[in-house]
Amino acid sequence: MAEHMITVRGVQLCAESFGDPAQPPVLLIMGTGASMLWWEDDFCLKLAAGGRFVIRYDHRDTGRSITYQPGHPGYDSGDLVEDAVGVLDAFRIQAAHLVGASAGGALAQLVALDHPDRTSTLTLISTTFALPAPRGRDLPGPTREFIRFLQAAHPDWTDHDSVADHLVSYAEMLTGGRRPFPEREVRELVQADIHRAHNPASTRNHDLLEDAPRDHRPLASIRVPTLVAHGAADPMFPLPHGQALAEEIPGARLLVLPDSGHGVERADWAALTSAIREHTAH
């Protein structure tokens, strides 16, 4: 199905599906600041080919979804959580297998806590605790190289070439440096993302979002089957974050990707899609 606009909680979001709607649904939730294109087509097709109905969507302020003025988001982080549930409503799906990457993994955790009846399983990729880590868990921060990169990055968000160069360099930093970087393919993806966005500068609104004022049950109360996939070279959330998540969520299984950094890297597609298909087969 081609991408199309759906109405979610009174706003317009862009979504796309792959595969047979009669198959078990899988909702892909990308990290903040990233459109659905970062769940690349072939990754979605590989999942769908394994007998899954795969849905991806653009968050607010990314891609073709509703876009707010840079610096002035008209929503909070809780709206992004409820948007995920709203996407299921738009597709008339009662419950789905949730797969979240980076901050999308945190959103998926909150959906599972707030809407357990809408969550069949969880797959958490390259992420960390959506809520403050339990007392006694001393988790490492980002690597020094990662921090230095962010401190030195000053792209001109009004210049698409400057934005593209920055995003390609950022994607390379996120890999952790253990593999050759597929610069040509990543640049093509970045340019496609910039081209289809209403305003690339608005993605920075996600950095300004306030937390929604609500109480949450602890992560240990999650009862759905959970798979945690984490790269051993992740420079944003080093591996202990994934290990701690898997220890905190009852029955969770940890999949360590030895040469992977942060995100859904092409070299890991076979391992990830196989693991997700196995995890969502129950």
Structure, described:
- By secondary structure, this protein is of the alpha/beta class.
- 33% of the residues lie in helices and 17% in strands.
- The chain has one domain: Alpha/Beta hydrolase fold, catalytic domain (Rossmann fold).
- Strands 1-2-4-3-5-6-7-8 form an eight-stranded mixed β-sheet, with helices on both faces.
- α2 packs across α3.
Condensed summary:
With 282 residues, the protein is of the alpha/beta class. Helices cover 33% and strands 17% of the residues. The protein contains eight helices and eight strands.
Count of beta strands: 8
Q: What name does the CATH topology carry? A: Rossmann fold
Strand content: 15-25%
CATH class: Alpha Beta
What structural class do helix, strand and pairing data support? alpha/beta
> How much is the radius of gyration in Å?
18 Å
Low-confidence stretches: none
Mean pLDDT: 95
What form results from the Cα inertia axes?
Answer: globular
Q: Specify the helix fraction band.
A: 25-40%
What is the fourth-level CATH superfamily?
A: Alpha/Beta hydrolase fold, catalytic domain
Please render the helix and strand layout as text.
Blueprint: E1 4-8, E2 11-18, E3 25-29, H1 41-49, E4 53-57, H2 77-90, E5 96-101, H3 103-114, E6 119-125, H4 144-152, H5 160-174, H6 183-196, E7 226-231, H7 240-248, E8 253-257, H8 269-279
Parallel strand pairs: 3-4, 3-5, 5-6, 6-7, 7-8
Antiparallel strand pairs: 1-2, 2-4
